[in-house]
Amino acid sequence: MTVHLRIERSIPDETILDRASETLRKGGLVAFPTDTVYGLGVNVLCPESVEKIYEVKQRPKSKPLPILLASPKQLETFMTQKNQMIDKLIHTFWPGPLTLVVTCDKEPFTGQKIGFRVPDDPIAVSIIEKSKSPIACPSANLSGQPSPKTAQEVLRDLDGKIDLVVDAGPTQIGKESTVVEINQNEIKYLRHGHISKELIDTCLNRPSLDKGKIKKVLFVCTGNSCRSVIAEGLFNHLIREKKPIHAISAGTTAFPGIRPSENAVIVMRDEGIDISNHLSQSLTPELIQKADLVIAMTKAHQRFILEIAKNPEVDSKKVHLLMAFSSRWDFFGVDVEDPIGQALWAYRNCLEMMRDPIKRLIESA
Question: Residue 330: left if φ>0, alpha if ψ -120 to 50, beta else—which one?
Fold first, then answer.
């Protein structure tokens, strides 16, 4: 009979986590929630248990078992030679619903292609950490059946066939991870899951800046009275005395000499930044040409910038969307919407949305 233990994600019972990890260390089969679906964990260093998981799931022996990690750094346990493509994907999507299939160059999997993932779920991460051994973890269902989103769905297929189910309620995503294979600098899509091919392509094509060569950054919005002014003020505030880089801003349809919107001034004053003396200016080809880096708030702004640039071929390499620098993959390609005319909360949301990509921009410049 399979033991069924319920646990709260917000305040997890350590005794249940300890029991699950101890069962795994001893070679038992344990189902537990991840951010995607419920997984069926097994100590990959126990050959008998690995054999059993194939038998229980009725899984073809030709399909390798994916391994869950507690942190991105744990991948170093299995491989040392990571390339830029792997680094970009790890930095962007881990923890999260992306499985990376790579060739291991360290024991016990030297020369083998193994799928690795760091789940974005505290229960899964705690169990993996406590087990202190590599945990293989395919979905907790019979092969060919829908992947389980709840413990009840696990028991429907596997009750009496596995040792333990840790039940934390429904999984957050409820859809399998996307699986990609990385071979040198080539990517192969093996399974389409929660993260789209477009998001992964956006990640891999993110701007690579010439570090140390950028001296002037130009932020561009529409009226140069809120978004680009907030971005300019925050950038100059965060980078002060760190690097010899200065930001300015302009608007695609700005009237010259206009003060920032009142709400923009208020939210920046709360940050200890005074933008009240800023005067708007219109975007010109000369401003674009003099800037080393041009950052657009929206895709429409980006297109406009390239249309009026004197040298579009060159300028396309230095004109980027602000959210292309975001560390959140769900923000890739998203426009920073105009808060003009809205309440104070809209300006605060705008500021918070821009804070992370501007910090990453400073790190990259």
Answer: alpha
- 330 Cβ neighbours under 8 A, 6+ residues apart: none
ω into 260 cis (within 30 of 0): no
Total-model pTM: 0.78
Confidence of residue 177 (pLDDT cuts 50, 70, 90): very high
Cβ-contact 32, 4 below 8 angstroms: no
Residue 99 is encoded by which pair of tokens? Answer: 């499985």
Sheet (strand 135-136) strand order:
3-6, 164-167, 30-33, 38-43, 135-136, 67-68, 113-117, 98-103, 178-183, 186-191
**Full strand arrangement of the beta sheet holding 319-321:** 246-251, 216-221, 293-296, 319-321
Residue 1's CB: how many other CB atoms inside 10 A?
A: 6
- 313: pLDDT strictly greater than 80: no
DSSP state of 66: P
Domains and CATH numbers, the chain: 3-204 (3.90.870.10), 216-364 (3.40.50.2300)
Residue 136's identity, in one-letter code, is A
